[in-house]
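Z., the sequence and structure:
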Amino acid sequence: MELPDAPFYRRWSVILAGVVGVAAITALLGWRGLQQVASPATTGTTVTSTTASPSTTAPPTSANSSSKPEGVLWEEAGDEVAMSPGFRAPPTWRIEWSFDCSNFAKFGGGNFKITGDGAFERIEIQRFATRASGNQTFTRGGFGHLHVDSVCRHWTVTVLSG
């Protein structure tokens, strides 16, 4: 007595071809997805200075964002949360920042924070004070966004090449 042939969907060759096909599609989609993500380069940092501003100093005014001076990659002034448009930083660049949180003086100051994503995912500048300013130099470039999160009355951030 001879056994009947199994239906086509139970044959090993069809099952194997299906598994190989699914694996190929998954690999292709994963590869395409990785091409669209910025490389997670480690961002090395060097703090160059951080100083508290005297209480009599007014916060700097922002420049016109439509005409940026040479070397300015992004600059913004505000009083709430902000996100930069995506920009590409050279191998050496720096962030200059200042804030006025005198509106939180009765609590000892307010929180000011700059973080990033993409190639800037390891950037984290965070200060708690009434007023402060400083700058930080970074030794790895790439493409990404910066996020400013603050409860302060006024803040400024300028990103410069070199």
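The chain has one helix and ten strands. The beta strands are 45-51, 72-78, 82-83, 87-89, 93-100, 110-118, 124-129, 131-138, 142-150, 154-161.

Let me know what you think.
H.
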